[in-house]
Design goal:
This protein is mainly beta. The protein has 4 domains: 208 residues, Exo-inulinase, domain 1 (Jelly Rolls, Sandwich); 101 residues, Immunoglobulin-like (Sandwich); 126 residues, Immunoglobulins (Immunoglobulin-like, Sandwich); 72 residues, Immunoglobulins (Immunoglobulin-like). The strands form 11 sheets. Strands 1, 3, 4, 6, 11, 12, 13 and 15 form an 8-stranded antiparallel beta sheet that branches. A hairpin with a 4-residue loop joins strand 29 and strand 30. The protein is globular. The N terminus is likely disordered.
């Protein structure tokens, strides 16, 4: 077993060593098939149940050194049951720490581990690292994304995490190469948890950690973090500076400065009582993000009016601010899968609202509700193919991740030039509730293949009165930390106190887009126009967003478009005769539904006998479902439905006919 050679590079220059905690396990002292936590009390499981299905078994199938390792895999949709925990002996929040292990992640398979902040697992996550099946990784916590990059699969890799808690500097190494540093909003650890992630298959060997404590000085303030600096070139952001008291004496005043892009902004802090080891944050004056990567130097000085403190090595910290330059015409689509029954789903609400507020025209969130009154039948049966847990966000149909990771995923995609750009046009006939939408796509390159278009309508400011609109809320009371104000609300949040945004109302023609949207050979510079028609009588048209989606042949999203109805009307509705293209009719004049109002039966003529009929309430919740068999007249029993308005959808291949009906008995 090798030693952690990187420790010298992270030790604090002013450390007085009290004692160091050291641990290592190469799994050679066990027999294959032994339960690890049952064999070694230094290990445990998430629920402290050694020797059960939560406990990992020692394997001799693949090892980095010697014969043994531990193996994690799961075929369960939610992952598990193996959930192995390595406690670090105590809560660690000062000094330096290094964790190292060897991992072998099978090709096209994911892996996962996390660090817990408290001695009892499940109270607070310091960080989670997702080693994705496409050889990318992302580090997150419940406050957002921390770091991303790539790693090799199908071979043993050395994974190391080096932490300086005094300056809140976390650094990840893979195969002795730094993958980057970050400051963590949860700057403490108590244990590592390795979980058998869904569809995972990976081995772990040669696990070790070393913790070196720090002797507190009398007066010592440290610059530890700078947040709220992610964004696009030219955006104005309000940086948030974090300082920490790493001394014995309470800090009552100090000066904070930030040097960025040739300008220095300063703020004097007084009247505080920052206790030993506590952290204090303050928003500074706005800065405008430069057009290239630049250093930002955060400095704390004049602590308690004494000029220099007792340890000047942690007074300044340098951060790299990397503004993002969006590709022209690019919009990223984030489909967030949620439900009012899901206690963790307020997290999805918070991050979608955050992205919409910060990135505006470059990001469009779509809240895809499941099994609640806002569920949309167009997503039914599809979400289970992609989604393993709630809430989950899928960006451009490429990644599925916790919503806290959405900003990093967005910033990774917004710079990729799209093959085509979409212009939304619309015209709305109020008397008939008819909304006609034109999606005009202009391609920047010659293409071939089955590129597709879909149109989604989302609605903001959605309210409901039934208990189905109550939002379950595990953040209530604040034990899981802040979550956009949900920590101050009840569990569940009553429907009267909830407003839902970005709610998916219609997806047409379906989840996968319209077949043959374009010719098999697409000519660069040519406009292709598609027309969609919707009955929007069930929605507040002033709160609708029209979202166009351009799909690649492999089903991922190449680009999107988003406008309000008024913006689309200002662009002008493009009829088929004005530009080259095709028209997808979502209201079919050959189909007739009668009587309307109806009591016990509806009758439908003009069908071909291969359609699906779906009846939903006005929020989109599916109530009745039928397959047609008649070529002439189809009868639909509706006696089980109460009086009121409903939506009926007739689905045939890629065509959707939608109409509002009234049941009156």
């Amino acid at each position: 077993m090798k030693k952690l050679f990187l420790l010298l590079s992270i030790l604090l220059s002013s450390v007085n060593v009290l004692f160091a905690q050291n641990f290592s396990d190469d799994f050679e002292s066990y027999k294959a098939g032994d339960y690890l936590a049952q064999s070694n009390s230094k290990w445990t499981t998430w629920a402290n149940k050694p020797g059960t299905s939560q406990d990992v078994q020692v394997s001799n199938a693949n090892a980095h050194s010697g014969n043994n390792s531990i193996y994690f895999s799961s075929s369960l949709s939610a992952g598990g049951p193996v959930d192995e925990v390595l406690p670090f002996g105590s809560v660690i929040n000062t000094g330096s720490f290094a964790l190292e292990m060897l991992m072998y992640i099978d090709k096209s398979k994911p892996a996962y581990f996390n660090l817990q902040a408290n001695s009892t697992p499940g109270q607070k996550w310091s960080m989670e690292i997702y080693m994705n099946s496409d050889s990318s990784f992302i580090i997150t916590n419940t406050d957002g994304s921390l770091l991303s990059g790539t790693y090799p699969q199908g071979k043993w890799i050395d994974v190391k995490l080096a932490i300086n808690f005094n300056t809140n500097t976390w650094e990840l190494f893979i195969n002795n190469t730094s993958k980057g540093t970050f400051a963590n909003t949860v700057n403490q650890i108590a244990s590592m948890d390795i979980y058998s992630y869904p569809n995972s298959s990976f081995y772990v060997d040669d696990v070790s950690f070393t913790s070196t404590p720090y002797t507190l000085q009398n007066t010592n303030g440290a610059a530890v973090n700078l947040t709220n600096t992610k964004g696009l070139e030219g955006q104005s952001v309000i940086p948030r500076a974090y300082i920490r008291n790493v001394g014995k004496n309470t800090i009552t005043s100090c000066d904070i400065s930030l040097l960025y892009n040739g300008n220095t902004i300063s703020k004097s802090i007084s009247g505080i009582a920052l206790s030993s080891l506590d952290t204090y944050s303050v928003f500074l004056s706005p800065i405008q993000l430069a057009s290239s990567s630049s250093n930002a130097v955060l400095t704390i000085s004049n602590v308690n009016g004494a000029g220099k403190d007792n340890d000047t090595t942690d007074d300044s910290k340098t951060f790299i601010i990397n503004p993002i330059i969006p590709a022209p015409g690019k919009l990223v689509i984030g489909e967030e899968f949620t439900g009012t029954w899901c206690g963790f789903c307020p997290r999805g609400t918070v991050f979608l609202d955050y992205m919409t507020k910060k990135y505006g025209k470059y990001f469009q969130g779509i809240a895809v509700h499941d099994n609640d009154p806002m569920a949309l039948s167009g997503y039914d049966g599809v979400s289970s193919t992609f989604i393993k847990s709630y809430p989950t966000i899928m960006t451009n149909r490429m990644d599925t991740m916790d919503p806290s990771a959405v900003e990093v995923l967005f910033l990774n995609k917004i710079t990729t030039a799209p093959f085509g750009t979409i212009v939304n046009g619309a015209t709305y006939v109020k008397d008939s509730n008819l909304l006609k939408v034109s999606l005009t796509t202009t391609f920047a390159t010659n293409l071939s293949g089955d590129y597709r278009i879909a149109c989604v309508l989302t609605e903001d400011s959605v309210r409901g009165t039934g208990t189905g609109y109550d939002q379950h809320n595990y953040y209530s009371g604040g034990s899981l930390g802040p979550m956009g104000g949900f920590e101050k609300l009840a569990n569940p949040v009553p429907a009267a106190d909830m407003v839902y945004n970005h709610v998916s109302r219609i997806i047409a023609p379906n989840f996968y887009g319209l077949k043959n949207s374009f010719p098999s050979s697409i000519v660069s510079g040519t406009n292709y126009n598609l027309i969609f028609k919707f009955d929007v009588g069930a929605y507040n048209v002033n709160n609708l967003h029209i979202v166009g989606i351009l799909f690649n042949p492999n089903g991922t999203i190449n680009n999107g478009s988003s406008t309000t109805l008024s913006e689309a009307e200002a662009n002008g509705f493009q009829s088929v005769g004005q530009v080259a293209g095709i028209e997808q009719m979502l209201m079919n004049p050959n189909i007739h539904i009668y009587p309307n109002p109806a009591a016990d039966y509806l009758y439908i003529s003009g069908l071909k006998g291969k359609e699906k009929i779906v009846i939903t309430d006005i929020s989109g919740k599916e109530l009745l479902y039928f397959n047609t068999v008649s070529n002439d007249q189809t009868s639909v029993p509706i006696s089980t439905l109460s009086n009121g308005f409903y939506l009926i959808k007739i689905i045939s291949n890629d065509n959707v006919f939608s109409s509002k009906i009234l049941i009156q008995k």
